[in-house]
Structures are given as C-alpha cells and as structure tokens.
Specification:
alpha+beta; 3 helices; 5 strands; about 20% helix
C-alpha cells in the first residue's frame, strides 16, 4: 500500500522544465559552438508569430552572461536568436514562440552559440549584435553538475 502511494506521488511530481540533453548531443554542441556560456534570462523579445519553415524564424532573448566556458565574449549582456521550430522542446506547444515556461526571467541555461551572419533568423527585433543559438533540441539548466560536464566536453576536440 505504501509502495503504491509512493509510486503515485512520484508520478505526480512535475516534469523537469528543460529539455534533456543526451550526452552525445551535449558533446557535439559544445564542440560545434563558437561560444559556450552560462547565462541568465533577463528579457524575452516579442515573437514574430510564425513557425520556422522555408525561412528560419527566431525570437530574441536577452541574457546576462555569468560564465564563458568556451570562446571569447567581452559583453556582460547579449541577445540570442532562438529558432522557433514546431514540435521542438524549446518552442511553445500552442503558439509560434519560445516556451514561456522555459524562457522565464531568471532561468539559467548553458547556451551553445555561433555568431549571427546575414543569413540568420528572421525576427521581430534586430539588435545591433546577436548570436544564434544551437539549443533548439535541448536547453541544459546551469546546475553545477551540468556546467562541469559541459566544461569537459568543450575542452575536448
């Protein structure tokens, strides 16, 4: 009886808010990214309201940089364009936008970034300088264990 009650209680616990990154995915992203950072969400720009398809559609998020794991970054705050791909873990399930549960002010993530070029995402806003996120399939939270693993992955070739 008690065992059944414990199983039911565990099943009712909320799922993790962030999409899980498999080890191989994390390694590949850490090695592919030009810049890897630990960052905190400080502002979410409005979405364009369209899903990516023929054109890559993105939504900008402003982050405070807490740690640079790989690459060089002088700024303390940056804008990052995250892709709005339907049925991906970082997108909202109902609207063409980033998941408001994930991308809430104060949430901390490890971001895998590349510099944005002219062929980047179409977005509603166009900050003077922005980065492109490689995090559309997973978005690791910046807990101590995850950051330690990502440091190791970024250091290997």
């Amino acid at each position: 009886m008690i065992g059944s009650l414990i199983i039911i209680m565990l099943a009712l616990l909320p799922q993790s808010l962030t999409p899980v990154c498999e080890e191989e995915t994390s390694k590949a992203l850490a090695q592919r990214a030009e810049i890897v950072v630990v960052a905190k969400v400080i502002e979410i720009e409005p979405p364009l309201g369209l899903w990516s398809g023929y054109h890559a559609i993105g939504q900008h998020v402003k982050y405070e940089i807490e740690e640079v794991i790989k690459g060089k970054l002088a700024e303390r705050e940056i804008y990052v364009a995250h892709g709005i791909w339907k049925n991906t873990p970082t997108a909202d399930t109902e609207q063409a936008r980033l998941s408001p549960k994930l991308f809430a002010k104060g949430n901390r993530f490890v971001l895998f970034l590349v510099t944005e070029h002219d062929n980047g995402y179409l977005t509603r806003t166009h900050p003077a300088k922005a980065y492109l996120s490689l995090n559309s399939k997973c978005l690791p939270t910046a807990d101590a264990e995850t950051v330690k693993l990502i440091r190791e992955y970024a250091a290997t070739k």
